[in-house]
Amino acid sequence: METGCGSFALIGGDKRQLFCARSLCDDGYAVSLGGFDTIGQMNNIEITSPFEAALMSEIIILPLPSLNQKGCVPAPFSKEDIVLTDDILTAMKGKKVFCGMKDRLLSVYPQLTANTYDYYDREEFAVCNAVATAEGAIEIAMGSFEGTINGAKCLVCGYGRIGKALCNILRSMGAKLTVSARKPSDLAWIDLMGVRAVRTDELYKESGYDIIFNTIPAHILSCVLLAKIALHAVVIDLASGEGGVDKYAAQRLGITNIHALSLPGKAAPKTAGEIVKNTIYHILEEDDR
User: Fold this and answer.
1) Which of 145, 161, 140 is nearest to 237 (CA)?
2) Secondary structure of 44-66 in the HEC alphabet?
3) Cβ-based burial of 150 (10 A; exposed 0-12, middle 13-18, buried ≥19)
4) Which end of the chain is least crowded, N or C, by CB within 10 Å?
């Protein structure tokens, strides 16, 4: 895609940034990496310091999240923490900055407010990552459940983006699928998909699942409910934060409970990096109109 810009700097980040950089390079852009001093060389990509990367590029890409709990740019491939020093901030001045969770960045560096964009806040980013999350969750299920997905009695709690992606994939794999939702409109869509629907507040009536995928970020799967529907199940909790499963109850009941977070970057870093790139392209295209 033609963006009107010739060079990108990726400062910090994990494998997603490496694949994003490779994809940008394949599209014909000059690409530099800052904060990747432990990886050696990459063909046609400049590996340098964060300052030099910011200085030589027109667009800056920071990772998701933009800053960690220490206030540093996450940089697992760097020997040192990346702090946006005054020199780096000066090199970034007036340039477009793309990051995930920009509020974290701007709370520490408010001077970047004018030109900072949040790719994590975009709907297409969330939808595409939901597919990667669903595939990663099913990969975990296949490694943890001692049977096949085909014919397994599966429950998906929640019908948001990830729930929809799980529903599509599990149905195509031949799972005996039930999906829970709260809203009548979601229950209608689940039914229209040809999938068994159940109200989330009526899960206590269910029993005997082999695999349960939770996507609801609230304590849905309590001790009582786990004992009723999940006693012999593999439970994969995809909900953010503390999740939606009573992990202590699961442990007491001997239930396999896996809290699987950040799956796109772990299970599909190539696709996740390309999603970052494509989302940035969309923002640039809109910004140029």
Assistant:
1) 140
2) CEEEECHHHHHHHCCEEECCCCC
3) exposed
4) C
Residue 4 scores a pLDDT above 60: no
In this prediction, residue 5 has a pLDDT band, given cuts at 50, 70 and 90, of: confident
Residue 54 in tokens = 């910011």
Domain membership of residue 42 as a residue range: 7-121
pLDDT (average), residues 49-70: 96
The DSSP output letter for 27 is T
What six digits make up the tokens of 155? 């429950």
- Nearest by Cα to 229 from 243, 247, 250, 248: 250
Q: Judge whether 226 and 253 are in contact, CB under 8 Å.
A: yes
Query: Residues with Cβ < 8 Å from 286, sequence gap 6 or more?
Result: none
Q: Which of residues 121, 151, 166 is at a domain's end?
A: 121
Task: Please tell me the predicted confidence (pLDDT) of residue 288.
Answer: 77
Q: Where are the alpha helices (DSSP H) in 63-221?
A: 86-92, 102-108, 123-144, 161-172, 184-192
For the chain, the average pLDDT equals: 95
* Residue in this structure with the two tokens 């829970």, named with its chain if needed: 180
Q: Specify the DSSP class assigned to residue 71.
A: S
Prediction pTM value:
0.89
Instruction: Please spell the DSSP secondary structure of 140-173, one letter per residue.
Output: HHHHHSSS-STT-EEEEE--SHHHHHHHHHHHHT
What CATH number does residue 114 fall under?
3.40.50.720
